[in-house]
Design a protein that fits this description.
This protein is mostly helical and about 90 residues long. The chain has one domain (about 5-20, about 25-90). The chain is about 50% helix and about 0% strand. It is built from 4 helices and no strands. The N and C termini lie far apart (about 25 Å).
């Protein structure tokens, strides 16, 4: 069965120690910061940087993802979520 965008987001949340969400929603700043940390991308946490900045940092650490600055202003697309989930799954815990 094909995983939905919501399924992928929840798998990523769980992989970085965050909670699954029942409702369909994008990543919070806290979740994005946890993903950055899991990918060894330094991010300030007090206060959190803008979401676009954290998404750009995540894209820059994963091979094959477009790190075009314009893409940082939008949520991750399904293919990007799949690449993020795969990268996190392949990392030692």
């Amino acid at each position: 069965m094909t995983r939905t965008v919501d399924d992928l987001r929840n798998e990523i949340r769980v992989a970085v120690g965050r909670y699954e969400r029942i409702e369909s929603t994008g990543f919070t700043k806290e979740s994005l910061a946890a993903i950055c940390e899991a990918l060894d991308h330094d991010v300030e946490t007090n206060p959190f940087p803008p979401k676009a900045e954290m998404r750009a940092g995540i894209r820059s650490t994963i091979d094959g993802l477009d790190d075009d600055p314009d893409s940082a202003d939008r949520p991750f697309r399904k293919a990007e979520l799949e690449a993020i989930e795969e990268t996190l799954r392949d990392q030692p815990r």
